[in-house]
Amino acid sequence: MQVNIFTDGACSGNPGPGGWGALLVAKKNGKIVSEKEIFGGEHNTTNNRMELMAAIKALDLLTKVSKVTIITDSRYLKDGMTKWLDQWILNNWKNSSKKEIKNIDLWKKIYTLSNTHDISWSWVKGHSNHIENEKADNLARLGMKAFKN
């Protein structure tokens, strides 16, 4: 099973009320067999936390080991998983300044989830008329809506 996961996070203020959204598209033999939209949010959060939450919540839904492509407009999420994570782990979850990395709770969670699947990471420019990314953005805004005053 191939699963493409399109993720996005949103925040009104940073920190402030935020939302995350993800579109999961499962394919078998190149044909779409299912699509699922998920979203949620928090009262006081950051955009980066919401970007991470979108990927975490989507991966958490997968019940079988899968080949996954996560498509995000967050360089923080993509670079964290593809460039920085190995060094953080070697440094006991500290950055190059020897300070604990931000959002360590979520990075540890996504690291654990990512070890279950064969994941590749792809970045797309946000708000560039990428249909699935726009859907994920709309879901993130929907998730945030419940937490705005």
SSE layout and pairings?
Layout: E1 2-11, E2 16-28, E3 31-45, H1 47-61, E4 67-72, H2 75-90, H3 104-114, E5 118-123, H4 131-145
Parallel strand pairs: 1-4, 4-5
Antiparallel strand pairs: 1-2, 2-3
Describe what you observe in this structure:
Helices cover 38% and strands 34% of the residues. The chain has 4 helices and 5 strands. 34% of the residues are buried. By secondary structure, it is α/β, with parallel strands linked by helices. It has a 5-stranded mixed sheet with strand order 3-2-1-4-5. Strand 2 and strand 3 (31-45) form a beta hairpin.
Descriptive keywords:
single chain; 149 residues; alpha/beta; 5-stranded mixed β-sheet; 4 helices; globular
Question: Would you summarize the structure shown here?
Answer:
The chain has helices spanning 47-61, 75-90, 104-114, 131-145; strands at residues 2-11, 16-28, 31-45, 67-72, 118-123. It has 149 residues and is of the alpha/beta class.
